[in-house]
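Q: Here's a chain of 170 amino acids. Please give me its 3D structure as tokens.
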Amino acid sequence: MLDLGNGPAAAAAAAAEIGDARSIPMPGKKLAGAKPYDCVLLGLTDQDVVLLPKIVPSAVSSTFDMNRTFEQQDPKLQARAILHLERQAPALRRAEKHWAARSLLASTSHNLRATAKKTQKRRALAALKAEDERAERRKAINNDVGESASAADTDDLAFYLLYKCPRTSL
């Protein structure tokens, strides 16, 4: 029976007891519920735990189309990203059907897409707010100038701004 003690040494010992490299089953039924960092049987080292959060976002953004979910990505792209992660952190290879690498890629893809949507929405709202403020300032200027300036004065100034000389000099 496996001893599930704490620490990387216990995780490595537990992983060594497992003969098949792909024998660690997924802890839940759904990929979204799988947590590779919490699975002691994978035997992730401290170096893997520090390295993976740095390389997974890079692998997702450089490999995947961010307009699609993880499951909608081309299988060849998924395989390429999975193999890249498993080469960087060999402990991920122990997972049955690559669930650990797929879980990391899926959650990171979801997080990056959600962040991009929030940013896009925030920018759209800021643009609308700026347009409203511009319209208010235009309205204030038109109300202020419209009553005091005659049409001739406005036409003369517009002519000067356009041709850089007064109308009377022509």
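Q: Can you summarize the key feature?
A: The first helix runs from residue 8 to 17.
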